[in-house]
Amino acid sequence: MEKEEQFSKTSQKPEKKKNFVLKHLWDFLLLGVLLVGTASIYVGRTLINNKNANQDVIATVLYEGNVMEIIDEDGKKLNPFDLGKVTDYKEIEIQGRHTTLTIGLKHNSIAVVKSGCPGQECVHEKWVSKANHPIVCAHNGIYIEIKTDNWSDVIIG
Amino acid sequence: MKKKITIKQLTLLAMLLSLALVLSIAESFIPFGIPGLKLGLANMVILLAIHYFGFWIALGIDVLRVIISSIAVGTFFAMGFWMSFAGATLSFFTMYIFYRWFKIFTPVGTSVAGAYTHALAQILVGVFYLGSWGVFYYFPVMAIASLITGTFNGFIVEMILRNKYLATAAGVARKESAS
Amino acid sequence: MKKRLSLLLIAPLLLACSESTFSCSALVFHSFFSCKYVSSRGECNKEMIDMVNRIDALADPYTNYGGNTLYYINSTNEPVEVEPHLFNLMKTALDLYEKTEHNFNPYIGKITSLWKNTLFGDDEDMLFDGPTVSSIEEAKSFIPALLEEARSTRVVLDESKSTIQRIGSGHIDLGGLTKGYSVEETERILEKYKIEKYLINGGQSSLGLGKSQDGGNFKVNLMYSKEENENLFSLSKIDTSTSAIYEQSVTVDGITYSHIINPNTGMPLSDYSMAFLSGEDSALLDAFSTSCMIAGPEKSEEWSKKYNFSYSLYEDVGGFTKLVKESESLTKARI
């Protein structure tokens, strides 16, 4: 009888497994669909961004959702920054909601070099040169957006 | 007949709320790119509350835990608060709809759906607050992590619901609320 | 099954990702040159940059780069053996000298440099204060002699020996041609590699337009207009050339002098303020854009029909451009 019990117990295991999967079939399906969907968006986006890797980029600094007005000593508008035309390293200080931030500019790269925010996530991003890769300082309401330079608009004179 | 809240129910409620609070505060220490993005560990408590207490009380627990945890962490009425709030409410409604009308899904599926909408809602609040659709950059990683957490939560909820001992305690709470 | 599904999703993306945008630029012709193009490999960059740098060194009349350059030709009357680029440039210049009825004149090098120094100062002179009425009068006094010298200067080409011989004492200046010529040469390189989507910018004045990034047209916006998008054209697969007084000009005693010299009078004055030309040959357009600005609307109309280009001529009103006359095809291209 013990043998029979043992036999029945071991034969229960594969059944239990089958029951488990059947019971959760729809759950696993849902999970699978969401995972594959999100993963393919992620992979697709990475591929597209890598394709644009060497392009000239333009960085726009947004403060609380609006394009921030940043002007230099001559009164020239600096924001959005045409990073393709930057030749030397430059630093610019801007005022966020709570603290100041120092933005660094290189040829086709931008970074938040210094910030007074507590989390320092923006500084940890370091130099960004890929399009659609943002730098965010939520504490200060600063969002730096990076887009590829669309060169179908030409200005001549 | 006026519904009375029994002491057993009240105790269970309070425990659930404090559990949710602890989980909420604990997960706020895991950074995810922009401050305020959370995994949604507390959703397992909310799902339990839906099963035990139904719509209104579970919703109450959910909202309360968002408010209290944000006061505790210090992000009350900041972007982080609104992200948690939107995430909690949207995932609550999703989970309730799944629980009530999509009975082919077990708590695992419900939890997964809730976790996904939790991540989505948080990102949407980020887009609104920071003013650019580029915030979706953080969505894939966030969503996949939430899906894993959601599955994990779902299995725990299912185990708790199937546990005869715990079910009795809840059943007692249920029966008493019906009378 | 999941693996195959995700592959299906990724495959079209992989196919689309085979092309990328490349760009290269150089500081040449006392200005800059840049080219952006879409290709699967950035094979052209070195070739293009080497080419424009070589043309710059060969054709710069103000700087001595050593070797058989234009600078050297301007210092001797012996036949000088030169590289193909310089020979072709010179040959094109002589051809255009005839076609533009001498409005494009490569022999006025000394007059150009005289006005450059008078109006805008020497490159090395940091203390230049700007021209005065007297400094302009002084420059004017040299003009008759310099014009005579330019008229007596000519160039003899020997195709078999690839030599250029300057006869006379005037200086040869090909500055009004080098940008257009470089754009032509760049287009030749791009054609070799079958690249269709490109934008060549020769110092803002010469443009080589292929197709834009999305395969469509470019939006070309002319500066110095009163309203922001007053002169906006939709163009592709075409070359353009612009001559304008606005980029470098100075006003003394109510008169505006620019960097564009009228070879017939020897003076940096013009009745018209900007000419925008579009057509197939960038070098030809480069020479004609200045000539159209000097000669006026009737001549521009005549030349445009004879040499198959379109023009858009403007005069200056209060510091902004005002349209005088325009080819029909450019009017149709306006947005």
Topology:
The complex is a heterotrimer of chains A (157), B (179) and C (335).
Chain A: H1 2-23, H2 25-51, E1 57-63, E2 66-67, E3 81-82, E4 90-95, E5 100-106, E6 109-115, H3 121-124, E7 135-137, E8 142-148, E9 153-156
Antiparallel strand pairs in A: 1-2, 1-3, 1-8, 4-5, 5-6, 7-8
Chain B: H1 7-27, H2 43-53, H3 55-73, H4 79-101, H5 107-130, H6 139-162, H7 164-178
Chain C: H1 2-16, E1 20-26, E2 33-39, H2 44-59, H3 70-73, E3 79-81, H4 84-99, H5 109-120, H6 133-151, E4 154-158, E5 163-167, H7 175-192, E6 198-202, E7 206-209, E8 218-222, E9 232-235, E10 238-244, E11 249-252, E12 255-258, E13 274-279, H8 282-295, H9 297-307, E14 310-317, E15 320-326, H10 328-332
Antiparallel strand pairs in C: 1-2, 2-6, 3-5, 4-5, 6-7, 7-10, 8-9, 10-13, 11-12, 13-14, 14-15
Which spans of chain B of ≥5 residues are poorly predicted at pLDDT below 50?
none
Largest sheet: number of strands, sense, barrel closure of chain B: none
Distance between the termini of chain A: 100 Å
Q: How many structurally independent domains of chain A?
A: 2
- Specify the overall morphology of chain A: elongated
